[in-house]
Design a protein that fits this description.
- The complex is a heterodimer of chains A (116) and B (111).
- Chain A has no helices and eleven strands.
- Chain A starts with a strand and ends with a strand.
- In chain A, the strands form two sheets. In chain A, strands 2, 4, 5, 6, 9, 10 and 11 form a seven-stranded mixed β-sheet that branches. In chain A, strands 1-3-8-7 form a four-stranded antiparallel β-sheet, with no helix packed on it.
- Chain A is mainly beta and 116 residues long.
- Chain A is globular, with a radius of gyration of 13 Å.
- Helices cover 0% and strands 53% of the residues of chain B.
- Chain B has no helices and eleven strands.
- The chains are: A mainly beta (116), B mainly beta (111).
C-alpha cells in the first residue's frame, strides 16, 4: 500500500517567494494533519482536517500560512511570502478515525524547506 | 495545548547497555504513543498505550503508561546500534484527535 505521499521532498527558495507543499493521504483515511519539525521546537501540529474540514488551525504560525483540503485525497500547505525562519521539515500525516483513542497516525517522509 | 516533557534529550550508550526514556506531563491523556524517527524519514509508530498502568513489550522494548495516564516510559534492554534514532512520545488529548509530541530523545548506540 502507498503511504502518505508528500511533494516536493526538498525545496530551496528565496525569501519572499511563495511555497506550496502537497500531500496525498492514505486512501480511506479521513483525518489529515500538517506538522512542522525544527531542532528548536520539535514536532508541532500546524493544522488538522477531518473529512476535508479544518478542525483545529491554532498551530498555524501566522497569516502567511494557509492550508486547504479540496478533496479527500489531496491537501496543500502554502506559505506566502516565505521567510528564512520558515525553514523546517514539514510533515503531512493521516489517520483513519477522528476522536478514536489510540488511532494510528501515518506520516509521510516530509518536505524539507530551506528559505534563503 | 497539553505539554509533554521527554528526558533525557540526548543519550549515547554502548551496545549491550540498558536505557530508559521518560515522558512526563501534568495533563491526562486518553492514550500515549511512542514513535521512532530515522534521519530523512517521518516518525513511525512503535506502540500505543491506552489504559493506566498498561505495559506493552515489543521485543527488547518495554513501554509503560503511568497509572494516572500522565506519564510514560520506554525501556530498551541490551541496546543495539540499530536502535539508534529519535524517540518521540505523543499524547492524544482527551477531547479528540489532536496529538501533542514531546521534544524527543536522540539515542545513539555505539558498537
Amino acid at each position: 500500500d502507498a503511504g502518505v505521499i508528500q511533494s516536493p521532498r526538498h525545496e530551496v527558495t528565496e525569501m519572499g517567494q511563495e511555497v506550496t507543499l502537497r500531500c496525498k493521504p492514505i486512501s480511506g483515511h479521513n483525518s489529515l494533519f500538517w506538522y512542522r519539525q525544527t531542532m528548536m521546537r520539535g514536532l508541532e501540529l500546524l493544522i488538522y482536517f477531518n473529512n476535508n474540514v479544518p478542525i483545529d488551525d491554532s498551530g498555524m504560525p501566522e497569516d502567511r500560512f494557509s492550508a486547504k483540503m479540496p478533496n479527500a485525497s489531496f491537501s496543500t500547505l502554502k506559505i506566502q511570502p516565505s521567510e528564512p525562519r520558515d525553514s523546517a521539515v514539514y510533515f503531512c500525516a493521516s489517520s483513519l478515525a477522528h476522536g478514536y483513542s489510540g488511532n494510528t497516525i501515518y506520516f509521510g517522509e516530509g518536505s524539507w524547506l530551506t528559505v534563503v | 495545548t497539553q505539554l509533554l516533557e521527554q528526558s533525557p534529550q540526548f543519550l549515547s550508550i554502548q551496545e549491550g547497555e540498558n536505557l530508559t526514556v521518560y515522558c512526563n506531563s501534568s495533563s491526562v491523556f486518553s492514550s500515549l504513543q511512542w514513535y521512532r524517527q530515522e534521519p530523512g524519514e517521518g516518525p513511525v509508530l512503535l506502540v500505543t498505550v491506552v489504559t493506566g498502568g498498561e505495559v506493552k513489550k515489543l521485543k527488547r522494548l518495554t513501554f509503560q503508561f503511568g497509572d494516572a495516564r500522565k506519564d510514560s516510559s520506554l525501556h530498551i534492554t541490551a541496546a543495539q546500534p540499530g536502535d539508534t534514532g529519535l524517540y518521540l512520545c505523543a499524547g492524544q488529548e482527551t477531547s479528540g484527535s489532536r496529538l501533542t509530541f514531546g521534544e524527543g530523545t536522540q539515542l545513539t548506540v555505539n558498537p
